[in-house]
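Supplementary Methods, section 5.1.

A reviewer requested that the exact input to the structure prediction be made available. We therefore reproduce it here, unchanged from the version used in the analyses.
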Amino acid sequence: MLRRKENCQFTNKARIVWVFIVVALLSLGILARVVYLGFYNHQRLLTYSKNESIRYQNTFASRGIIYDRNGVPLAVSTPVYNVVFNPKELLKHSDLWKYLIAVDYLHLSRQSLINLLNKHSHSQFLYVKKNLIPSQIKALQNLNIPGVDLEVNWKTFYPLGAMTAQLVGFTDAHNAGQSGLEMAYENYLNPMYGKRKVIQDAQRHTVTVLSGLVMAKSGKDIQLSIDSRMQFLAYLALKDGVELSDAESGSVVVLDVNTGEVLAAASYPSFNPNIVGEHNSRHTQNTALTGSFEPGSVMKPLIVAAALKSGTYTKDSIVNTSPGWYFIHGHKVKDEHNYGKLDLAHILAKSSNVGASRIALSLKRNELYDFLNSVGLGENPTPDFPAGSAGYLPLLQKLDRFSLATLSFGYSLTVTTLQLARAYSAIANGGVLYPISLLRVTHQPKGVRVLSENTAADLRSMLRTVMKVGGTGMLANIVGYKVAGKTGTSYKASKGGFNKKLFNGVFVGMAPLNNPKLVIAVHMNNIHKDKINFYGGIAAAPVFSLIMENSLRLLDVPFTNMHINKLMLSNQKYLKRLVARI
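The structure derived from this sequence is encoded token-by-token as follows.
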């Protein structure tokens, strides 16, 4: 019993000794390693620390894509690459220069490379080439030359170029929206960049990704109301119309009358958003939304609409315009001819200033003013669009009788092309004003009734007379559909009055007459008087005709009028000239 106890004590002591020995050996090993690292391997670790280090790196994601209503991309963000040299490092590897010289897009000869590296010999970062697409940089990636790196960036490209540039807008060097819808929806389209911890070598090549601290998130896509086919058509027709009429510029809007969606909004001249040098062009604004002007006689249907709504007038009411002129406070209001007694339809067909102004002056001031407000005049229809204009509708108390008279035929106020299209859309769709949308509408929007269905129908019939022989809108007629609309011509405002050598030419119309689908407004800016086509019925109406006819066909709207007369045939010859030039 005693012996067993002694053996047990001996065994425990032996175990303690062995544990002590093991711990001592481990401690000596660790100490030896520390001494070795501290005194014998210092230089190697120092070199390693210089060559590789932990850094925090931004990670990128794509900007949201802008699509048209049919899914056609109008703005696409894609990765691009910048070639970066470290001259200080690259000078050590002259034996590899021949591979850089062989890369075509770098445009380097041996001598130019030597000059470049010597000039920046103390630099470790030098941009050599920017904005290369992925297919271009594969050869350079495979070379893996010390002192040569590729920096990843994102850039947005615009497939339709100038045709959508002023509406879609463009981004800057940091891919942030700077104009148009790119700017309006920046918070929606802009991606959220991330951050990660990496180990990089001396050339800043990532060796190992340690962790992702914040995940990058791509921007959200948006779908516009724009139909790129109509935008294409509208832009080219407008371009040719501006050149044929020798106007300084022009704008056009195609509007869906039943939803308020803008199917096309173009202005000309434009710019190429894919060329950075054109981003400062004076043509970056979409003047269909941002440019206001005195509209001329296209105001007259709105005056007649207010008169019918008031109950003071009916469609059969007669207005005496004899002798073709009259004075208000010493100012003369006149027509081109003495038209005598005219009903409301023929006041529009003859575009009588005397008739329209007599109607305006006979109405209660607040009735007329309230109606103009109700159809969106004086209100910005696209408040989110950069530099979108509300035009100018003077305060009621500032309108004297002469100002009220001139307002009836399109002076004393200013409007945008979009505002005109919107106001006429209420006539086209049966009396409802819808909010304007530049985004595709997914459900029927809520509109505000501004006219009765009967009044709107009467106005469409009146506007049809403008298109007939003797009316000012004959050149707006198209084969296959009946059109209703109004022409307008006005002097350009200038300092202290009007420039009577420069004109605005305008046409606003709708089709098909029996059930309008579209309203199109066309504005031609700064047409010279010495040109025979300075009138809206000559400069703007044919542009409307070309866009409307082809847009209705794009929408598969059945023909409603197969009657073809000599007037239409002559108009088609004019339009063929436009098409031939496109």
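The two ends are 118 Å apart (CA to CA). These observations are discussed further in the main text.
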